[in-house]
Design a protein that fits this description.
single chain; 77 residues; mainly alpha; 78% helix; DUF2526
Length: 77
């Protein structure tokens, strides 16, 4: 397995786990990876950035929906 394939598998795993801290740590680690070309590193980092952004949007939507449900009818239930 090539280094790029190993990195890609690690990125896949981090995204599947959905843990922002782990994705951020991997982003930083990839910044210092000299075995990858600039383009390869950028592509993997973009995958992580997109997953983090999606997770943030989903969390906000979930919290907004929860607040709406809790305050339905003008009272918190």
């Amino acid at each position: 397995m090539s280094h790029l394939e190993e990195v890609s598998a690690r990125v896949d795993e981090a995204i599947a786990q959905g843990v922002i801290a782990g994705m951020n740590e991997l982003l930083v680690e990839l910044s210092d990876d000299v075995e990858l070309s600039r383009e390869e590193r950028y592509a993997q980092q973009q995958r992580l950035r997109q997953a983090i952004a999606h997770h943030g949007r989903q969390h906000k939507e979930d919290m907004d929906a929860r607040l709406e449900q809790l305050t339905k009818g003008g009272i918190i239930s």
